[in-house]
Amino acid sequence: MSSLTTSEHEAADSAASKLNENTNYLGFGVGLRSQHFPEIMACESLPVDWFEIISENFIDNHGYGRHVLKELRSRCPIVMHGVSLNLGSSDPLNWEYLQKLKELAEFVQPSWISDHLCWTGVFGHNTHDLLPMPLTEESLNHVAERVSRVQEFLGRTILLENPSTYLEFRQNELSEWEFLSLLVKKTDCLLLLDVNNVFVSSFNHGYDPLVYLKNIPHSSIQQVHLAGPTRAGNCLVDTHDQPVPDQVWELYKVLLEKTGPVSTLLEWDANIPGFSEVVAELNKARLIFEGKPYQQLESVDINQVPSAFSSPVVR
To answer: CA 94 to CA 101: how far, in whole Å?
Structure first.
C-alpha cells in the first residue's frame, strides 16, 4: 500500500486535479493493463502522455490496482472508458452501476469518461459484448434521452465510441456516421472515434471508410482509438491482439488531416506484449502525427487465424 503521508496524499490529489482538468488534447496514451504494472511503476519518467483505464476493472477494486491508479493519477492525465452503460438497451438505466462509476470518477478525477454506442444486455442479463443498435429515428431518440440523463447524473459531458459491428439491421434508416452526428446535436455529447472500428465495420459491411471519416463531425472528436483486428473467414474481428495494420494507419493519417491534433490511444487487450513494445507501437502514431515517412512503419498480416478474442475487462 502507499507510504504517503496525509499531506502528501493531499498534494497528490491536488496534482491529479490539475492534471486531469478537461482539455481537448492529451497527446499519446495507452490502455493501462495490469500486466504492465511492474514496468510502469518502475518508470522514473513515463514514456506515454496519459493512460486510459477500463472503468469496470477499478470499480469495487481496492487492491494493488487501485494503489497503482492513485500513484499514476498524480503523474499524468487519466481517462475512464467503460463497457457497461448499456445505452442502447430497452432495460432501465443501471443506477447502481452509475453511482459506482461516479464514485470512481471522484477518486480518479479523469479528464473525461467514455463508453460505447451499443447495447450490452436486456432483461437484466449482461451479454458481455458490445452489440449493434438499429440505426433508426426511434432508437436515436431513445439513446439521446438516456445519454442526457447519464450526463446530468455524472455532471459532465461523456464521449461515445463507434463500435465494431458484424451485422446490421434491415430496419436501419441512417448510416452510423449520420446517427452519431444527430446524437451529438441532440445531447452535446462528444465522440471517441475508434479508427480500427471504422476499418473493421466498413470491411464487414462493404462501405467506404473514407466516406465515414469525411462525414463524421470532426469538431466533436475528442479522442481516437487505434488497435489491430484479425481476419476470421469473411469478416474482420476487433481482437486488439496485434500491431495496428497499414490500413488503419492510413485512415488515421486521413483523420488527422481533418481534425488536427487529437488525443490518441493505442489499445492492446490480448496476446499483450511487454510495455516497451506497446509504447513502440504507440510511437508510430507520433511519427504519423509529425509527418514522418509512412514507409518507416512495418506491415501487419491481418489474415492470420485468430488465436484470441479479446476483452479489456478482467474477470
So the answer is: 11
The CA-based dihedral angle spanning residues 70, 81, 277, 26, taken in that order and rounded to the nearest 10 degrees:
-80
CA torsion sign for 40, 226, 273, 312 is positive
Joined together, the cell numbers standing for residue 260 give: 488536427
Which residues lie across from 52 on neighbouring strands? 31, 79
**What letter represents residue 190's amino acid?**
L
pTM of the complete model: 0.89
The H or E element containing residue 126 is: strand 125-131
Helical residues (DSSP H) of the chain, grouped into ranges: 6-19, 37-41, 64-72, 95-108, 137-154, 176-187, 195-205, 209-215, 246-259, 275-289
Tell which residue, 85, 295, 91, 71, has the closest CA to residue 192: 85
d(CA 301, CA 222): 30
DSSP code of residue 26: -
CB atoms within 10 A of CB 192: 25
Per-residue pLDDT of the chain (315 residues; tens, 9 = 90+): 344 455 655 665 665 555 555 578 999 999 999 999 999 999 999 999 999 999 999 999 889 999 999 999 999 999 999 999 999 999 999 999 999 999 999 999 999 999 999 999 898 888 888 999 999 999 999 999 999 999 999 999 999 999 999 999 999 999 999 999 999 999 999 999 999 999 999 999 999 999 999 999 999 999 999 999 999 999 999 999 999 999 999 999 999 999 999 999 999 999 999 999 999 999 999 999 999 865 544 556 666 554 545 556 654
